[in-house]
């Protein structure tokens, strides 16, 4: 689409990743160049299959999928089966993908895609652990100055979910996060402070169900499982759909209030490893002095309007 933002989504589907993919497919203001996968919510083979199945269900067979890193840079992978199920996408039976898995490692494909396009035109949207993005920046440092921005779902200014202070994606591979946050590209952290406001309430789910399409039915099945999992494991009455918040920000920055501030990653803390330490002291720095910003508040109605409209467009 002319004027649409070119994006690459790096993800580990995951019910909320699935909704994020649907938002990217269904909204014409972004052009999904391709999808890369990383071990996180479930093992790499499972999340890669899930990404392909979601795109198949969304009639987006033209979107390539490249598998990436199966484990964090240093640590052992610990999946979130208690939240996402044994498949990583429990609660729905999606069609089997027709398009074969694309050849080539995700990291290599990210580098080649960014280097082949005009500088400042490709946005990296990271929805899982940051292993692939960190490896790409280390393997080809020139991509850092060519990427338009990095928008990631991860971290938290206040409380975490993998630990009292660390969010799952960052805690899974804090060394990778440290690399990504310390590169010079513009970076927006869409953390739990925002995503815990994006609850799929019964009212929201009725809006989606009312669309009456197969893809809407798939989303409702995912949300039914997600709701049960969050009630059992996180004491949430309704599930927060984290990852679409990052895609929504790329589509419509007005959907979110952000604050520019330095952010660092705790690597050595005994009880704080993976913590995103956001320094909100003092006046807000300008973009020349600080390349990182964090999301703080979500326009909930505006966000769900984006998601529902995208699902309707696919259906």
TrEMBL record:
UniProt xrefs under Pfam families: IU_nuc_hydro (PF01156)
One MF annotation (Gene Ontology) recorded for this entry: hydrolase activity
InterPro entries (alphabetical): I/U_nuclsd_hydro_CS (IPR015910), Inosine/uridine_hydrolase_dom (IPR001910), IUNH (IPR023186), Ribo_hydro-like (IPR036452)
UniProtKB keywords: Glycosidase, Hydrolase
Record Gene3D superfamilies: Ribonucleoside hydrolase-like (3.90.245.10)
Domain Inosine/uridine-preferring nucleoside hydrolase: 7-305
Hydrolase is among the record's keywords: yes
PANTHER family: INOSINE-URIDINE PREFERRING NUCLEOSIDE HYDROLASE, URIDINE NUCLEOSIDASE
Stated name of the protein: Nucleoside hydrolase
Organism from which the protein derives: Collinsella ihumii
């Amino acid at each position: 689409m002319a004027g649409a933002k070119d994006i690459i989504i790096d993800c580990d589907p995951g019910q909320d990743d699935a909704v994020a993919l649907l938002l990217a497919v269904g909204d014409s203001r972004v052009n999904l160049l391709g999808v890369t996968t990383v071990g996180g919510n479930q093992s790499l083979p499972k999340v890669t299959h899930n990404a392909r199945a979601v795109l198949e269900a969304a009639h987006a067979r033209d979107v390539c999928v490249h598998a990436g890193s199966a484990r964090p840079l240093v640590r052992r992978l610990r999946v979130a089966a208690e939240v996402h199920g044994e498949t990583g996408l429990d609660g729905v039976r999606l069609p089997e993908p027709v398009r074969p898995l694309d050849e080539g490692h995700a990291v290599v494909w990210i580098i080649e895609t960014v280097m082949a396009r005009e500088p400042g035109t490709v946005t990296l949207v990271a929805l899982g652990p940051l292993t692939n993005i960190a490896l790409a920046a280390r393997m080809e440092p020139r991509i850092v100055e060519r990427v338009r921005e990095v928008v990631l779902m991860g971290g938290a200014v206040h409380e975490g979910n993998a630990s009292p202070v660390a969010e799952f994606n960052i805690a899974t591979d804090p060394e990778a996060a440290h690399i990504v946050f310390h590169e010079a590209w513009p970076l927006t952290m869409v953390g739990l402070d925002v995503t815990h406001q994006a609850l799929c309430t019964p009212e929201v789910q009725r809006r989606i169900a009312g669309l009456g399409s197969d893809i809407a039915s798939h989303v409702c099945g995912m949300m039914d499982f997600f709701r049960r999992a969050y009630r059992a494991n996180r004491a949430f009455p309704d599930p927060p759909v984290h990852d679409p918040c990052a895609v929504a920000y790329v589509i419509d920055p007005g959907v979110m209030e952000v604050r520019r501030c330095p952010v660092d990653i705790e690597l050595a803390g005994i009880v704080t490893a993976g913590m995103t330490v956001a320094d909100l002291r003092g006046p807000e720095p300008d973009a020349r002095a600080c390349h990182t910003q964090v999301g703080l508040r979500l326009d909930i109605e505006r966000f769900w309007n984006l998601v529902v409209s995208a699902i309707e467009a696919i259906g």
